[in-house]
Amino acid sequence: MPNQVQIGNTDLRVNPIGLGANAIGGHNLYPGLNEQANKELIKAAIKEGLDFVDTAFSYGMGRSEELVGEAIREIGKRHEIIIATKGAQRFIGEEKHIDNSPDFLRETVDASLKRLQTDYIDLFYIHYPDENTPKYEAIGTLKELKDAGKIRAIGVSNFSPEQLREANQDGYVDVIQGHYNLFHRDAEQDYFPYTIQHGISFVPYFPFASGLLAGKYTKETQFNDFRANMPHLKGQAFEQNLEKVDQLRQIANRKQAEVSQVVLAWYLAQEAIDTVIPGAKKTEQVLNNLSALEINLTAQEMNEIDQIFTSD
Ligand SMILES: NC(=O)c1ccc[n+]([C@@H]2O[C@H](COP(=O)([O-])OP(=O)(O)OC[C@H]3O[C@@H](n4cnc5c(N)ncnc54)[C@H](OP(=O)(O)O)[C@@H]3O)[C@@H](O)[C@H]2O)c1
């Protein structure tokens, strides 16, 4: 497959534009999802070269993993697809606890394997850090699972820089997934120097700032899901952010590209980032995102974009 990249130091090779699957079966996040359409979206994208899907137990409490597993099984290309999933949420009755203990990590990996209908997970992340488990111990457990062939690469998500260092004390962390986009750039200082130095790949989540950087929202846009409470999508902050997206649109127009494509190309030009996982609810969105691979930004365009989001 052309244009494949290696994820950090792992042996995983992917199309750098993956799919974030929290809107695939993520009924707890988005109302009114159509599961059949969700599966068709994955299959259509795979036919067009998508080979990296990012899911998690907590998207629909296992439903996203089940649908991803079904879609990949139906299309019959398990070995060509890189599946990333995440776990750490233990339910005791209705109550959710974050748990990184060795026993629970073994249990949750086994449960993900079943839901995904597979006998290996390409990339397994600890979704959130808990308060009690030493991070090197949690990662030691994932290393055992890796040696046993149940997972191929080790990830952490939402770990602070200190937790990442502790987790990686034996050098076993392959990937960190964290909040990063043009509006939210702390990771450049907080994580990138360390991850670059240690060959850990940084996978940004919310690459479109939950849709804002895909370039289609206006002042009139109303959100009927968890986005309704996001500060950057409300009031004056939303209006100021839309102005920045308009400036980005001028660059995109010059290149006869979409705002969303220019944004993805900007991330992929960062040394710390190998892959992106934009979410999508419609097949045309995921196909449109895949075609961002055709966009090349000059150093001057990279700078111009940087300036839009760093100046007040
Ligand atoms: N590790 C973690 O804790 C964590 C946390 C959050 C997310 N994630 C992962 O990161 C992935 C990405 O985050 P996200 O999906 O929440 O947010 P996002 O990628 O920033 O935004 C996705 C939204 O942008 C819109 N969109 C996408 N492509 C578009 C296109 N080409 N044209 C127009 N609109 C487009 C869609 O929303 P509309 O159609 O509704 O406008 C889509 O749902 C998730 O799917 C998940 O896998 C991980």
Reading the helices and strands in chain order gives: EEEHEHEEEHEHEHEHHEHHHH
Oligomerization state of this entry?
A: single chain
Helix content: 25-40%
3D shape: globular
Strand arrangement in the largest pleated sheet: 3-4-5-8-9-10-11
CATH topology: TIM Barrel
Structural class estimated from helices and strands: alpha/beta
Supply the CATH superfamily name.
NADP-dependent oxidoreductase domain
Straight-line N-to-C gap: 42 Å
CATH class: Alpha Beta
Can you tell me the CATH architecture?
Alpha-Beta Barrel
Number of helices: 11
Please provide a written account of the structure.
The chain is an alpha/beta fold and 312 residues long. It has a single domain, classed as TIM Barrel, CATH 3.20.20.100. The protein contains 11 helices and 11 strands. It has helices at 35-47, 63-75, 102-116, 135-147, 161-167, 187-190, 192-198, 235-254, 259-268, 283-290, 299-310; strands at 5-6, 13-14, 19-20, 52-54, 82-87, 89-92, 95-98, 123-126, 154-157, 175-179, 201-205. Strands 3-4-5-8-9-10-11 form a 7-stranded parallel sheet. A two-stranded antiparallel ribbon has the order 1-2. The model has no long low-confidence stretch (mean pLDDT 97). NADP nicotinamide-adenine-dinucleotide phosphate binds next to helix 10. Residues 16-308 form the NADP-dependent oxidoreductase domain. This is Aldo/keto reductase. It comes from Ornithinibacillus xuwenensis. Keywords: Oxidoreductase.
